[in-house]
Write a structure and sequence with these properties.
InterPro entries: Cro/C1-type_HTH, Lambda_DNA-bd_dom_sf
Helix content: 40-55%
Strand order of the largest sheet: 1-2-3
Number of domains: 3
Radius of gyration: 23 Å
Oligomer: single chain
GO molecular function, one term: DNA binding
CATH class of the largest domain: Mainly Alpha
CATH architecture of the largest domain: Orthogonal Bundle
Number of strands: 3
Protein name: Helix-turn-helix domain-containing protein
Order of helices and strands: HHHHHHHEEE
Amino acid sequence: MERSVNFGERLADERRRQGLNQTDFAALGGVTVKTQVLYEKSERVPDANYLAAVAQHGVDVLYVLTGQHVPSLLSAEEGVVLAGYRELDARGRAGVLALIGGLSAGTSDVRPAKATKRSQVIVGGSGNVQVGTVGKSIKKKAKH
């Protein structure tokens, strides 16, 4: 994303990054569409309540205000993940959050998928892969 020159352009950049139109973005900030348009034209400046509200929805408020992104305390790998996440639309971000939520859920919530007799099962972690057919004993495949 190219750095914009003024506050209103940066605010519009963040709105578009969120995949929202002015009406929906205004609602996040608790303002009218007319007010949102004035913000994006740099004819008005939002108050702290608006900025706090849109920040709760993933807007980089430091970028909007200063043109500088939040200083990174992330590793290079985390930075790549975050940059990719920021480029996603709302549906993509929801999918990533669902995936992360599923990965961090306790194993007590995990239920096996219903399988047919022909279903293949792969079990294991690093160096411990087993393949078999549901309903039969799983045989370890390894080259000796």
